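User: I'm preparing a small set of examples for a lab meeting where we compare how different chains pack in three dimensions. I only have the primary sequence for this one, and I'd like the structure in token form so I can line it up with the others. Please keep the answer compact; I'll paste it straight into my notes.
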Amino acid sequence: MSLFVIGDLHLSFGVPDKPMDIFGGWKNYQSILKDNWIKMINEQDTIVIAGDVSWGMSLLQSKADFDFLNNLPGKKIILKGNHDYWWTTLKKMETFFSENKFDTLNILHNNHYEYENYGICGTRGWVNMPGESSDAKVLAREVQRLETSIQSALKAEKEPIVFLHYPPIYNNDYNYDILEILHKYHIKRCYYGHIHGRKGHIYAFQGIYEDTHMYMISSDYLQFVPEKIL
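Assistant: Understood. Below is the structure token output for the 230-residue chain.
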């Protein structure tokens, strides 16, 4: 039984007008992802999908993408990305998964999931990227969700591992509100996605900031190979 992570699948089975393979490095990515996934992951494993799961604009429009994921091996834990427009209330998402028998899909939202002695924690996060406006309310909400998730793991006496969509650090941009939470709870490991392309990857911070080791796990950076972390 192992724990894996990957971010930014950008599946588009339900919206074929959103093909990612028009971008460099994404040719046949859905087939490549499936082949690598089946080779590496079995039914007893768990994989965290760190946001930007589907291009669908609604749960119904994303149904084909969820079906694709559900039929792959392993337990999937999904958190929100900035392009997950299908995301709605936890109750509606869980009801939709239940009604469609997507029994391997789980939503990470103000909660945690146990993996051995660890608690899988996380949220979308936020960072001031070029071209995006700073929104104090959004950031405050994301900080609260992250803290709630971590606290739920600690209450269950599990060591938190944090998964985010947005990077806490990108080039010279530091999201100190998120970083303060990682510092406050002595988070040892943090995984994030969102960043694409070679020009983007070179500015993504990977290494130790204070006591937290940070890793980028965008799917194109990983070449569509899920990363085994435990």
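A couple of notes for your slides: The helical segments are 29-40, 63-70, 90-99, 136-155, 176-184, 197-201. The chain has one domain: 3-228.

User: Perfect, thanks.
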